[in-house]
């Protein structure tokens, strides 16, 4: 029976080649999109699943009540881990983690920067990073050891056995390679090349590591099996309050399994995260696949007159409705299978390019049973959704009527088809509008005045002895003719990490206990960065009292409610000497945070160099490199042009914009395939009518318009329906962005016009072809 259905279905598909081609093409594009999105979602859900103890591992986080709401942070004080281990028996392990960033390690004449973290030894009892050689847990209990990943060991020692070899670390310590572990998997939320003992971190940060009022570390705990997180969180909630003066902080454990997808918080409570992006892309993939299924439904029901006599004859010969439904479903599954084969090929070709753009490592692994299960589910679901309505529709014809020649389409079938076409173009138009808004928002952020002069500004990370020799380095740099000014700071101009609250000022009210972004800088910071002063002056060596003063930005003045004169106002015990005009910091789409700037006394983390406008950057860089290497020999010369580094902040949004462009284009392509197929069938069905109209004197333009208007009306209705939906959705999406583009009429009108042009272009081929056909051939049978 099934063999007969298969043979009959295959013959029918070959008989109607255009319909088959449109259906296979549309479904293959929809299925390829579905496959890629499923692979991407599977990759997202795989993060941190390789840790065997993942269900028992928690990151300690803090909720802190501020005057403007509840903030949540994932860094905690240094003494917390020991306190928790001593007080709570349900804790099996605790471990602190400090991020060292790119640090220099070398052996012999080879020196390379590698990503580093400092961890307590029990970190590796909790997390699963398998050892290749040595015992990494035992190794990290000694401050003069280092653990390398397999790739880091290969980069340093090539094919040699690295065990026991000495590595020079940051030009300061000689460390012994005591263990080698496998590389960190791509689906890990933490990435590193080298592991260093936390005792080494403690020795170099002894001034704050034991203080309860300094939050810089991650603290991880692993609970005993069977422990309740809710009970644990009740016990740890007051620990910070009991140990420090911070009486508004509450401690809680956050599951590792939620760390990647559910890490969003709003006013102290979990509020989405990357899971929202997963749902969005999943929804887009579903709608694109649905558009392809709609094409199949439309073409199948449009060809109902051709299949009606077949149904009538089969029913007259005794075929039941069930067998006819099964036959049409088999046809749908054959088409879907062909489309799936083509979709797998398309996905394989597209994945490498998408990985390059998105920075991901999605792979099509046919050895995983989940992949085959997903493909089979996608095949069956698509085939049944696409074929179900045509199967029941076609099998419902009455044999008496169709065999008498009454094969006109059932009442309402044309209206249903138009409704499906309208739905297709609602989705396509919505995606076009979304793409336009994302593009304009990206341009809006990129063209935003940053508040300082990024041209000819370099940032040099401080390495080795540069921190202790910054005064000498500054002198050497200023002796270079191409350099206009030099300064330094604890933060670069793009990312500011430090923050504090509890600062006092005259007239402060209880509801103004908000958090300030805090940074330390050296003399001439405003001048070198190209910032502008709204009031007062920059830090200068000409004033001996500047070490007691501070500067603030306009956002801080506004939030504190200070009235002129602001200069001279005490901020704590520090008088304000200058007010810096607001500039973009951290997020280019957010309002500048309130900031206080102090004059730093120690070494800074970043050196800033302002070049003269007319200088040759390449010539200047060679001289700057010589001066930097003089201050810190043995370290490779690093620098970043601030303007280029700022533009890199938009890479993530560019990737998101590309995804919307890609999905929107596919939705339009599939919709146009459906329009092309329907217009071809309509032109074929009305061949005699067109011939008669031409004989009666109808022009080619009249014939074209007659065919075109049947499809342009659903497109126009789709545009009118989409406008209010898109306005509501775009307002909601942009509402949380401080620096956002304003929605304008042309964004929506342009999308509608584009869809109309695409639709006209799609159906015009068949319309013009029908209008230019010889009416004699159409009427010769009459």
Provide a descriptive summary of the structure in words.
The radius of gyration is 34 Å and the shape is globular. Helix 2 packs antiparallel against helix 11 (274-302) and helix 2 (17-45) packs across helix 13 (321-358). Strands 16, 17, 18, 19, 20, 21 and 22 form a 7-stranded mixed sheet that branches. It has 782 residues and is α+β, with helices and mostly antiparallel strands. It contains 26 helices and 24 strands. It folds into 3 domains: 1-37 and 276-353 and 368-445 and 649-780, no CATH class; 54-260, no CATH class; 464-637, no CATH class. Strand 3 and strand 4 form a beta hairpin. The chain starts with a helix and ends with a helix. InterPro entries: ABC3_permease_C (IPR003838), MacB_PCD (IPR025857), Macrolide_Exporter_MacB (IPR050250). It is found in: Cell membrane. This is FtsX-like permease family protein. Residues 20-237 form the MacB-like periplasmic core domain. Its main location: membrane.
């Amino acid at each position: 029976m099934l063999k007969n259905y298969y043979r009959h279905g295959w013959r029918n598909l070959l008989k109607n080649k255009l319909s088959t081609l449109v259906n296979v093409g549309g479904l293959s594009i929809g299925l390829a999109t579905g496959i890629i999105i499923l692979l991407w979602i599977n990759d997202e859900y795989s993060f941190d699943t390789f840790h065997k103890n993942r269900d028992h591992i928690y990151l300690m986080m803090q909720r802190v009540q501020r005057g403007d709401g509840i903030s949540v942070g994932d860094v905690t004080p240094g003494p917390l881990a020991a306190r928790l281990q001593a007080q709570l028996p349900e804790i099996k392990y605790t471990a602190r983690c400090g991020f060292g960033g790119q640090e220099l390690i070398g052996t012999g004449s080879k020196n390379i920067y590698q990503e580093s973290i400092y961890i307590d030894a029990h970190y590796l009892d909790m997390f699963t990073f398998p050892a290749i050689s040595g015992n990494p847990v035992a190794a990290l209990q000694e401050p003069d050891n280092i653990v390398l990943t397999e790739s880091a060991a290969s980069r340093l020692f090539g094919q040699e056995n690295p065990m026991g070899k000495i590595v020079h670390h940051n030009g300061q310590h000689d460390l012994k390679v005591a263990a080698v572990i496998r590389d960190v998997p791509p689906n890990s939320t933490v990435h590193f090349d080298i592991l260093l003992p936390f005792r080494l971190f403690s020795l170099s940060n002894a001034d704050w590591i034991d203080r309860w009022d300094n939050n810089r570390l991650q603290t991880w705990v692993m609970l005993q099996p069977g422990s309740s997180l809710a009970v644990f969180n009740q016990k740890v909630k007051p620990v910070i309050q009991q140990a420090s003066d911070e009486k508004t902080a509450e401690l809680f454990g956050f599951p590792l399994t939620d760390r990647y997808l559910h890490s969003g918080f709003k006013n102290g409570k979990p509020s989405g995260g990357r899971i929202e992006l997963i749902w969005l892309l999943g929804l887009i993939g579903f709608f694109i696949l649905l558009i392809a299924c709609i094409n199949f439904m439309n073409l199948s029901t449009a060809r109902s007159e051709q299949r009606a006599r077949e149904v009538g004859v089969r029913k007259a010969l005794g075929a039941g409705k069930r067998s006819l439904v099964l036959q049409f479903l088999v046809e749908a599954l054959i088409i879907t299978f062909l489309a799936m084969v083509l979709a797998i090929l398309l996905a394989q070709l597209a994945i490498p390019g998408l990985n390059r753009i998105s920075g991901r490592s999605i792979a099509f692994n046919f050895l995983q049973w989940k992949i085959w299960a997903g493909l089979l589910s996608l095949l069956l679901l698509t085939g049944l959704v696409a074929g179900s309505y045509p199967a029941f529709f076609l099998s419902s014809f009455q044999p008496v009527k169709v065999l008498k020649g009454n094969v006109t389409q059932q009442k309402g079938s044309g209206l249903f088809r138009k409704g499906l076409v309208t739905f297709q173009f609602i989705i396509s138009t919505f995606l076009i509008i979304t793409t336009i808004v994302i593009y304009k928002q990206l341009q809006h952020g990129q063209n935003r005045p940053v508040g300082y002069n990024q041209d000819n500004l370099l940032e040099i990370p401080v390495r080795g002895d540069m921190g202790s020799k910054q005064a000498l380095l500054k002198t050497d740099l200023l002796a270079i003719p191409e350099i206009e000014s030099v300064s330094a700071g604890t933060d670069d101009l793009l990312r500011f990490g430090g923050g504090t609250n509890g600062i006092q000022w005259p007239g402060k009210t209880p509801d103004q206990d908000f958090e300030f972004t805090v940074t330390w800088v050296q003399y001439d910071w405003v001048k070198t960065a190209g910032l502008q002063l709204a009031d007062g002056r920059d830090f200068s060596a000409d004033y001996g009292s500047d070490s007691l003063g501070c500067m603030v930005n306009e956002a801080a003045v506004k939030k504190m409610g200070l009235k002129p004169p602001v200069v001279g106002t005490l901020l704590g015990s520090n008088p304000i000497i200058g007010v810096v005009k607001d500039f973009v910091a951290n997020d280019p789409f957010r309002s500048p945070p309130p900031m206080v700037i102090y004059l730093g006394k120690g070494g800074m983390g970043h050196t800033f160099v302002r070049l003269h406008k007319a200088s040759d950057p390449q010539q200047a860089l060679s001289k700057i490199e010589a001066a930097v290497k003089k201050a810190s020999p043995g370290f490779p010369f690093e620098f970043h042009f601030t303007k280029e580094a700022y533009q890199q902040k938009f890479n993530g949004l560019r990737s998101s914009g590309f995804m919307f462009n890609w999905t929107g284009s596919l939705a339009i392509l599939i919709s146009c395939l459906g329009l092309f197929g329907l217009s071809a069938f309509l032109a074929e069905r009305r061949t005699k009518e067109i011939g008669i109209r031409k004989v009666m004197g109808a022009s080619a333009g009249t014939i074209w318009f007659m065919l075109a208007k049947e499809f342009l009306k659903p497109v126009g209705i789709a545009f009118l329906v989409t406008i209010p939906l898109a306005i509501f959705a775009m307002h909601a999406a942009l509402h949380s962005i401080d620096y956002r583009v304003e929605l304008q009429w042309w964004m929506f009108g342009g999308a509608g016009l584009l869809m109309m042009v695409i639709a006209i272009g799609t159906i015009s081929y068949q319309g013009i072809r029908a209008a230019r056909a010889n009416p004699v051939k159409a009427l010769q049978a009459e």
